[in-house]
């Protein structure tokens, strides 16, 4: 059995100060690979150091929409140059739009998102997308690029509507489920994931955030992804080992085979 944590933040505390133990626990929980995600330029060196040290950890480069106000000069050329420094950087993001918190101006978020999209098209690396309270704008922007380009889309920690998921499936998007799927009073999201094809689903922790039940409220880490996977397998009425096999294959389809 193999699981892949498709989205975690190993450079964040409290994970980073005990990262050896965190990775060891992940391996013991059948989490073979982890993808640690970039959100700011200034912490990218730390992500590079992590992926160089740990054979089973890969990384991304990207700027979170909250950080758009601090990265107004970011261009697709800069993003492409950052990707080139290590072959273990296999994705772009997390990027996207967050009109719930609006920590950065909408126009700045949109410009930064488009720079990431253009870098994704040029590099052919998957785009890892954060979208909150921005379904209309996210889809309009993605569809405007996807019409004429082979855009590889992963909706990270997907909590969107069923209508949004159906439109994104038309763009050949993949959807990553986090611990949120296990939370009570989340029936709409559960119904949405019932309708998303198994061959389009990945699992993630978003560690150190969003610990799944029965660990909700505690710091999250990659080993906890097993709870989300078990919950989803039950929700989809699929054998657990078959679910793990499928979500791992989906990861490889999107990001390529890992060593």
Task: Summarize the helices and strands and which ones pair or pack.
Blueprint: E1 3-8, H1 19-28, E2 31-36, H2 44-53, E3 57-61, H3 76-83, E4 89-98, H4 106-123, E5 127-132, H5 135-146, E6 153-155, H6 162-169, E7 174-177, H7 187-195, E8 201-203, H8 225-235, H9 240-255
Parallel strand pairs: 1-2, 2-3, 3-4, 4-5, 5-6, 6-7, 7-8
Helix pairs in contact: 3-4, 8-9
Total strands: the figure is 8
CATH topology: TIM Barrel
Biggest pleated sheet: 8 strands, parallel
Shape, principal axes of CA atoms? globular
Rg, nearest Å: 17 Å
- Mean pLDDT over all positions: 97
The CATH first-level class comes to: Alpha Beta
Question: How much of the residues is beta strand, in percent?
Answer: 15-25%
In CATH terms, the superfamily is: Metal-dependent hydrolases
Q: How large is the count of helical segments?
A: 9
Helix-strand category: alpha/beta
Question: Helix share of residues?
Answer: 25-40%
Span from first to last CA? Answer: 17 Å
Instruction: Encode the helix/strand succession as letters.
Output: EHEHEHEHEHEHEHEHH
- Major beta sheet, strand line-up: 1-2-3-4-5-6-7-8
Contiguous runs where pLDDT drops below 50 for at least 5 residues:
none
> Can you name the CATH architecture?
Alpha-Beta Barrel
For the record, the count of structural domains works out to 1
3D architecture notes:
The protein is about 40% helix and about 15% strand. It has one domain: Alpha-Beta Barrel (TIM Barrel), CATH 3.20.20. The protein has an 8-stranded parallel β-sheet with strand order 1-2-3-4-5-6-7-8. The chain is globular. It is of the alpha/beta class. It has helices spanning about 20-30, 45-55, 75-85, 105-125, 135-145, 160-170, 185-195, 225-235, 240-255; strands at about 5-10, 30-35, 55-60, 90-100, 125-130, 155, 175, 200-205.
């Amino acid at each position: 059995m193999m699981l892949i944590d498709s989205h975690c933040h190993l450079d964040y505390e409290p994970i980073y100060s005990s990262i050896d133990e965190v990775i060891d626990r992940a391996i013991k929980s059948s989490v073979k690979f982890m993808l640690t995600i970039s959100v700011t330029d200034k912490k990218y060196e730390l992500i590079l150091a992590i992926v160089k040290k740990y054979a089973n950890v890969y990384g991304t480069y990207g700027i979170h929409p909250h950080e758009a106000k601090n990265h107004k000069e970011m261009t697709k050329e800069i993003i492409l140059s950052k990707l080139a420094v290590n072959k273990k950087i296999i994705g772009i993001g997390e990027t996207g739009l967050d009109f719930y918190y609006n920590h950065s101006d909408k126009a700045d978020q949109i410009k930064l998102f488009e720079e990431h999209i253009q870098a994704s098209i040029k590099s052919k690396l998957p785009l890892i997308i954060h979208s909150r309270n921005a379904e209309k704008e996210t889809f309009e922007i993605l569809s405007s690029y996807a019409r004429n380009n082979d855009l590889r889309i992963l909706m990270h920690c997907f909590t969107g509507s069923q209508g949004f998921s159906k439109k994104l499936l038309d763009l050949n998007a993949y959807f990553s489920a986090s611990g949120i799927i296990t939370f009570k009073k989340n029936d709409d999201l559960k119904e949405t994931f019932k309708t998303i094809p198994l061959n389009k689903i990945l699992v993630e922790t978003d560690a150190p955030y969003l610990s799944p039940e029965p660990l909700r409220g505690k710091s999250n880490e990659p080993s906890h992804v097993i709870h989300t996977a078990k919950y989803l397998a039950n929700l989809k009425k699929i054998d657990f080992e078959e679910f793990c096999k499928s979500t791992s294959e989906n990861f490889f389809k999107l990001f390529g085979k890992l060593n």
